[in-house]
# Entry
Amino acid sequence: MEFSEEQLATLVNDRHQIVIANAGSGKTTILVEKFFNLILDFDIEKINRVVAITFTKKAASEMKERLIKRLGEEIDKLKENKVENIDFLMEYKKLMNYREHISSAKIQTIHSFCKDIFSEYSTDLGFNPNFNIIDEPELKTLVDNYFNEILEELLTNPQSYSFNIAEAFDFISNDLLSKLVYFIIENPNVYEYLLNSLNSFADSYHAFETDYYQKVVKYAEKLHNESLSYFTEPIIERLSSEDKSQVFIENINKLKEIDFKGIEHPKDFLNYLFNLWSDTVKIKFGRKTCKSYLDKEDKKNFENNLSSIGVCSKTEYLKVYYSLIQNIFSFSKIINDKIEDYKKENSLISYNDMLWKTYKILQNDEILTKVQAEFDYILIDEFQDTDNIQYSIMKKIIPSLQNAVYNSKIFVVGDPKQSIYGFRNADVRVIKTTYDEIQSINDNLIKQGKLSANSSLKMYQQNEEAFVLKGKTQFGLNELKISHRLNLVNTAFVNYLFANLMNNNDFEYSVNYNELIFARKNPYLEDFKEVIDITNEKNVIEKYGSVEFLFTLIETTKQKSNSDNSDEVEANNGINEEDDEIDSPTEAQSVVNYIKKLINAGTKIFDSKINNFKTLKFKDILILARQRNGLSNLLQEFNKNKIPYVLNDSDNYFDTQEVIDIITFFKFLLNPNNDLTFAALLKSNFFGLSDFDIFKIRNFNKDKSLWGSFENLFINNDENIKLQINDYSLLQDVYNLIIEIKTKFLNLNLSDFLSEFFLTTNYLSTFQNNIIKDIIYSNVNNFIKFIQKAISAGKITLSDLLQEIDKYKDSRAGDSENQISNENGVNILTIHKAKGLEYPVVILYNANHRVPNTDNIVFDETNGLCFKFSIFNEQGLKEDIKLPLLDSAVKFKMQKEFEESKRLLYVALTRAKDLLVISSTLKLTQAEDAEDIGTANKIIRESPKGLMKLIMEGLKLNIDDLNDIVINNTYKLSKSLKIYSNKEYKEKQITFNIPIITEIENQEICEEVEQNSLRQQEAKDSNSDILFMLNELNQKEPIVHHSATKFQKLISDEKQYVERYLMKFPELMYENNATMYTDQISGKDRGLIIHSSIENIESWINEDKTININRLEAIINNKIY
# Structure
């Protein structure tokens, strides 16, 4: 195995080391090689003196597999006599012995590692070492139970406690109280913070107030300095020439002279600060204020800062907050103590306990000494996702990080640019701090003469050799910059983008960018030129890689509402904002058509495993989404187009349509009169009814619920109704099956009912011709296992089960392990689940979606626990109170999340080896100076959001630039790129085009898909355990995800439902032809109109798929009149 010089430097073992590894730089290979060489220096019985900590169980398993493979390679060399001058039998026996014992090597997750320590010493904390794990849903149930129990006791016997929780309900809701309690208990760092801080301020409001105001003043100083920075010298000079400039300049000078140190009366000071700023910005220069001279972004930031300075001066309700936080924590502490007692009595610990209780055990010096003596070397993978408590444990166990006397070593590998788990307390500052600490201790050892500036390299079956450590590697600081993953264009694009995005920001959670060095095998790049210009090259994907933008342009018009004072209102063609904000159906169609085009074109990609090109398949494509719940329309399009796909996520089954349908049936049984639930059930794979079928059912009896209307069809047995319904027998079968299930639900216990449910419905058999039926069966089976576990845990009613499902779905942290399938289907993952993976083609889906911030509880070490509360003002109206530190905490959190979103984008873009496609929906509106209405005269006005906004920032594009590249259908980029080839570094200038795709013709079903589908239809299912079939029911349409908004529209406005969802007409058509609907139309007539329109569809759909409005109007009028 050949290593580069930067890789070899990581394999010395005489010092602490940190490795900052770029995407695709081979960090796992280094980790395996280091572990391999380290354990071979130990006798087999001491193999566990070396520990490797991985991020997931899957990663631990894969590392063991790679170690076994590595040992196998050396064993094979022995067999082939490739190794000389050794005792063959002795060495062979040694390697075989290690391979047999590698399964017991300490390669584990941090939780597993801590669990082992806790198990050994748990009796010191009074715990049974034979404990079980309590998962998050079970913990949430415990919290809920004790919350209700203790709350009732507190309200009925308030005198029994030193605090009064009832007072809290004057300011916060029961729901917010419940969330606060769970937040405190579930986050030990929050609990410990409150425990320590409130102990400091117990019975001393003055001390609390003083501390609070110190923090507020510090926050106000930051806002003040930022605000002043917007008024640069050029702007001051411009304002100096205006009338009243003297007063403005005097105020600015006063603001500059403000001293924030040693403030004795902070409340008065904050009022003065706010008033001075307010007076300053009110000064008029003609008709303008000073804000008008700032550019758009600076003006927005300045106004936000000024508003926040105003908040800093409003602290009259601080005593309310002080009382609230004390009462809430006291209440939480009682619940937490009860839970701790329960866990101890029942030998249970949570995942958080594994870390925090281990850390507490290690405070015992005797135990700590024993644990330290067990390990010589600890290797940690994915170190950028470590949190403070995890690192604190490691610093205890490897004392040489604090004391140079010890010989134990730590080796950490990570990439700060890929730290994306802040939502589960991962802290990117840890890897930055560790970098400094390792440098410091190695530097001290070198200065003391205890460590050489250079080292020696000892690798298996090689003589130990002196190794020169260059630069920072002497201090254990290593960087793996050479990337073997991305193709040429992809590497240049990523470097260009992130060199601008991650550029030496001083914010503590930001990271700097170290550029990728291109080193991937590429037969087209063997002879490098000084300048590589591929703007006119063909077949660029297979030769050099490619980055493409897939823009779905949605036409909108601006209408003035009837109110003269109202804002302009946008009317969208083809997009419902309520339904499709996170998942546009039009964008979904574009992505599916793009994929079909790639497959139909026989796109070639380079496969390094076979060292040759191969034809792209569905399984070579990865779609990345930011959220699980933003895929509904995309999955619908895959189903409609018979394209196989795989949701690669260990708990994704909750998000699949097959499981959603089962849950929908359960919800219907509990509440049959919920129209939205029943509509979704009728359209599900259980019954496969269409929108039109539901429309007819709705119209039979509008006075009843949808289920009531449906039930009446068969209870009344009306012959006239039977004649009106073409598929009456089909609906009768649906009704009979529902009644049978309802009867069993009422008469059986939960376990027996669920068995009968799956047997009676024969649900799984409806998927027997689906090309991904095996995946569907697996999803349903996983769901059944979940149900069985819930029943065994005491969930005895269907209501209990649904609550358990909701809790589990809510508690999923988003970092569960992915499960990559070998099925030939398009892979779909959230970006968080894709880390560590690579695919030839990656499509970043819906990049223009911004994830809403819905948190109403915020915590950080500076601002503490912050939340909004309410008071009733003098007018008796409820008023939300937002104290200064909540404003500070929210801004801090937003800044943290903004930096993490950059890293999330980096992870997404570096998954693509050959082709990166960035898909976004953009809205077009009429240009103000355009006379003609038409697409050519429409422009993009709305600035991109979410990840697309970051991409624009990284490419240095504004909204005008975006319009230009959309018009030109391409964007030219040039980037200097460092290339590593034949052990040499070369600098090259790369020039390439980024295609801008805005239109894709609808593609026919790919031949490969048709053949797969045909094979599936001809195959006979041999799985007797899940061979079910609803023989009486014919599934009439592809089963899709269903929108509650759509059915709500049917209930509230049938005309719009028909227009938008059944007929699929553009909204503008109805705006211009509103007279068509001036008369009321009966439900029966509407049904006839729809039937007639569909029957004559060829006459009113033009060849270019536009609508012949006149012809359609004639058909409709013919039926109406």
User: Anything to note?
Assistant: Residues 218 and 260 are 8 Å apart (CA to CA).
